[in-house]
Amino acid sequence: MKVLLTALFTSVLFFVSKAQEKIWVQGTIVSANGGKVLVGASIRNKTLHNQAASSLKGKFDIQVGNKEDSLLISCIGYLDRTVAAGFFEKNKVLALSVKETYLEEAIVSTGYQTLKANEVTGAIDVVDNKMLNQQVGTNILDRLNNMTSAIRFDNQPIQNADLQKLNISVRGLSTINGNLDPLIVLDGFIYEGDISNIDPNSIESVSILKDAAASAIWGARAGNGVIVMTSKKGAFSKEQMTKITLSNTIILKENNDLNKIYQPQNADFIALEKYLFEKGYYDSELLYQPYLAQSPVIDLLDRRKRNLISPADSASGIAKFMRQNGRQNYMDAFYNVPFVNQHALNISGGGTRNSYGFGIGYTGNKSELDAFDRKINIQLSNSFRPTDNIQLDLQVLYTNQDSRNGKPEFSSLSYGSMKAPYLQFLKEDGTEIPFEKEYRGSYLKENYAKGYLPWDYYPLSEYKYAKDRRQNNEWFSSLNLKYKVLPYLHLNMGGQIQQQRTENNELNALESYEARKWINEFTIIGTGTTPTKYNIPLGGIKRYSAAEGRSYTMRGQIDFNKSIGRHLLVGILGGEVRENRSNTNSYTAYGYNELPMSSTSVDFVTRFPTLPDDGMRRIPGAPQFFKNVNRFVSLYTNISDRFMDRYGLSMSLRKDGANIFGASTNDRWSPLWSVGGSWDIHKEAFFKLALFDYLKLRATYGTSGNVDLRRSPDPIAYIGSATYTSYPMYQISTLNDPLLKWERVATTNFGLDFSLRRGRLSGRIDYYVKKGKDLYGLSEYDYTAWGLQGTVVKNLAGMRGQGFDIDLNSKNISGKINWDTRMIISLNRNKTTQYYNLQNSITSFLSGGNTITPIVGKPLNALAAYKWMGLNEFGEGQGLLDGQLSTNYTAIRNQADALPEGNESIVYFGSSKPQVFGNVINTLSWKSLIFSFNVSFKGNYYVRRPVTSYFSLFANGTAYPDFDQRWQRPGDEQHTQVPGMKYPINSMSDTFYQYADINVYKGDHLRLEYVSLTWQGKYTVGNRAFNMGLSANAANLGVLWRANKLGIDPEFPYQLSPPKTFSIGLKIDY
Amino acid sequence: MKRFLNILWLGVIVFSLSACQKYLEVQSNYGLAVPNSLDDLQKLLDDSQIMNLKFPSFGEASADNYYLSQSVYDALIDYGQQTYIWQNDHMNFGNDWSSSYSTVYNSNLVLDRIKKINRDESNANQYDAIYASAKFYQASQYLALLWTYSKAYTQESKTDMGIVLRNSSDFHAPSYRSSIAECYEKVITDLKECSGMLPEKTSHVMRPNKYAAYATLARAYLSMQVYDSANYYVDLALKYNADLLDFNNLSEVKMTASYPFTIFNKETLFYAELLVNINLTSSRALTDTLLYRSYESNDLRRSAYFKVAADGTTTFKGSYAGSSKLFSGIATDELYLMRAECNVRMGNVEAGMADLNYLLRYRYKVGTFIPYVIKDKTEALALILKERRKELLYRGLRWIDLKRLNAEGREISIARKLNGQLIALQPNSNAYALPLPEDIIRLTGMQQNPK
């Protein structure tokens, strides 16, 4: 690694040290607006290919060959100027004028095409490199968060991992069923790999295609929006510039404070355990499954009951647990200091015939539980122009990731399923105490001690013997050939190959609990002359799985760009084929030993007697194989016409085909189209408002569709192996429904781009209307017809959504001190306009607003709750049934199911998804210091707070702070709403209380996302300038304001929120 | 130039039309298939999890062979409690109904798709076996559903509500309830049809053979109280295998093991299991005390069937599944008991007693069993019914036995004791036809069973 870096540096230095002995020219660079000196402006000699930078006083020296040498003077934010070296003989000072309309600068990449911002009719957000660098984070998505109005980062856990890998959505969802992730495009090709493999330091800019017109070019898979990433590359230039960027970041994370999670007080909890024990709650388990782990208190109570220990021992044992603070004990014993460091080096440059880019990145991440993850990214890009007509671009990205497990999570440590608040891991003398997570130690000791391996589990040291390692290697390479057939017509032939291999190696040595437990469970102890039989052989257990993914794309495309009279025609026409292949295989090896490497074969077919559960089980881990091949064929075109440089018209059309399994031929092809127009008003002669520097109107309309493969007329079976017989068998996994129609979504988008008073206030406003028809949704059905699932996909509803995306930039103060504000706001409202299956029960949307509301006119994801009428004198929650107070929860639910609309026992709140959200980013700069902070807000939505369910408290030990306020004696109903604890449990009462209106709150809140401070210095070494930047950033700083009075973080109610992180970075541009 | 472009695009279009279709014909997921051939259909029937192991268990959970201790009852989830006291009227998806109808769907799918295959000389045997097996699985499941969700077969069965008969795999076809008589008619017709086509012997007892169909016909007729037909078919079924496990033979019944019986033992004619039921797990269901006491000390079933806990309560370990799963298939012991009952009811007391004595000899300790000598029909029948209950515990038979015996006026009243109070279920009560799932009633508009 070091050697490689040194070699690189030497070669780079060789590149740049080609200076010649000629004459010197001096001068000063100033701003045309006010004459202030410009620091760090670059002065390049186009003849000699050398350069200089202006000093803190705006002065520079540069060598030139003669007075005719042409000098290019450029500075960020100013227009370039080219002068002859002789200019500085007459004038000492050169003034650069300010670039005013920043909007036209931006280059927008759609993946297929690179356009100037003014050629675009659709809604596209661009996040440039500067914005990407405002935040730290090892994943590119961390850098996009809070930077654009287009992407919503959902803090809720992913519901269905098959459909969703990234927890983000672009402009909300357009389909309810099917893949929910936006499409990720890297340098023009679909990226199928793990997004964490992309090194954020290697990304130059990101475009987010939001509306149908922008994304239609990507076809059916673009329904959820498209995120186009462009990596850093060298540029062709006559100056032969070599740019080196070196950046280092160190991130420190605050440890999660587990004391923030609510757990009942030890005294309350132990009292509860005693109460349940006396009531006989544990009786049948203690009697018939005595081998199952029990909490230490239950274990003591049971042994006392059976007279195995004295009353004094039992009491002192319980008293000992009374003193334990489990969360603190865990933090003391398990936590270490987490640490992330990230280093990147990028080198790029180019001449007239070739350009190159090279990047190498390293990320190391050690968690507070000693899990370790390291990632190496290498990126190479090269472009050649052997003749003026041909350009060849080659790019290779390589990622290597290696992760190892650490100590177990706090949430994984429970006795059986019981999470007790008095966990203990270490004795007073510091030695480890075994933790009974599955089986009861005292029972095993009595019955299964002799001849067996030890059964003890030591959570603190297990990771030394049970090693879980994940290795990931990925190659992503592309080759593109551009041939200039005519000045206005280019032919592009491109291809991309991606290969990714992930291996999981779980190695449990014989010393590990994992291996000992499995071996013990399958051991039959010998008696008399029969020897002990180990059905799982003595030795380690290795679980291995490998997933390999390969994809390729081949593309042929014609680009044209021609002015005809006052028209400028820009367009593309192309076709591509894509294949995405994945293989997975897994196996488990027993009796495994690393050195000498050996393993023992086992019988995966026979069912063996197992212990201590007296069961009959097979040994798990027989080899398994999976294979998927997805193929796509697409034809696409996108044409735009700009008339008089102010009127734009665009259209795009795409047809996709895919090898959807079981689908009939017609359904394999889906057409998508869009049209759009734009008008640059500020270019009109009649538009004389001096206020506006820039004003542009845009409008687009496009459709997208989605077909579910369940539309297949054939039943689709998966292949498996039958229970008991092991015969090959087919099981119908999806129900065939030939009546399903295509899901259709039409989006209309109006956009306004403007800049006021020389860029003092500029921004973009997009208004969109989304209309969905025949949307898919899970619907209840008469399962007498099938029986395997309770719901099926149906064309369920129509919806109408509308919203604004607003992006405003204002320069509040400029001068010595600059103060800029950027505000991004998304407003989004939608409602169900049609609902086809009125028999659906409302109970599903009572639970959280994650399904489509079956009521026309209500938001798509509405939250509803039971009307709560307070507690009665028995501490039971009351609802309304036929206008009367009632505790007949079943009847209340049934009535609500039968008549959801206008039912007095149900209260509708509103959307469960934020209908307004956005960020305000303030940046203050003074001299070389830049200070910025980002406040995000989410509003106009409702959340349900989790409350104690006695059922889960008894079963798992989980409770919430309302537990402390529970009704305990008559009279309490005057001042509490929390039902009393009853045994036996009425689980309907739990459910009624959980879904009652008193537990729904407004989710509105403000959050301080990050604060960062940057210092930038410019230095000149020899005749080259370099920039140095130091930055400090603090992120996840918590909620600043919330609408609810309970102090709950609406996104993480009673959960651990992402820990605060602090980072320091050093960046050198040379 | 223009011409060049035209040719290029023509080429692209021709290419895309011809080649793309082929390119897209590659299978996307290698683990998926569309069942078309006879082999494929056999694989649908071999999905034992759906075809053999999903027989309804709520009838057994409503019956009187077990009881729950107060503390177990208190700790039980609501629907388990309600099942126990015959008030489980708001069951939703994930129940007996959905499980049984998944077997029905698979059978219908096979029956629908086999129509598209030509039966000829080369495939006739396989064709018939698949067709008949599908009919068999479906009829067995219909019978089990009838036993659970309908009243006993009586004079009123032409009008009393039976279950839903699904005639195709089309899930858009609406469900409606046929009468009990129509349902039994369907079961009998289908079983008769398939008994003629099923093979004599199959490669596994999970696949039905001819004799399993005869035995199921006997079960159906017995529950309809048509004893001569039941006798006729049980006799045919016993022709295949009359072997009984000898409880004295430790290689056949491992008396000391935690589960003494071996799965697929020699008594098993057709293998099936009840769906796991929360009330019937071995940590909850305690054997009815009087029932346990009715086993004599020399009766080996006493120790082969029951595990005695420290507090003297007993739980069941005698399933022919050889595990905690409950066997509900067909075994020869049941056949002997059916034949004994039919014979006695038809007046052949001697023949009936001979079958009973033959069976019990294998159940008692060697040399301790003294064959019963009973001449009186009523007395003999009472004994056979008592032994039937003692032999066929937890096989999904007790609930229908209670119904049919009460239908003939035996006045068996069962009761649950909770909080010191008795909750009784009167003979012929409406509650004997368990309520259909609440969501099914809501979604289909079908009529619920009366309370």
UniProtKB/TrEMBL annotation, chain A:
It holds the Pfam family Plug. Residues 1-19 form the signal peptide. GO terms for cellular component: cell outer membrane. Its main location: membrane. The keyword Heme does not apply. It is a multi-pass membrane protein. This is TonB-dependent receptor plug domain-containing protein.
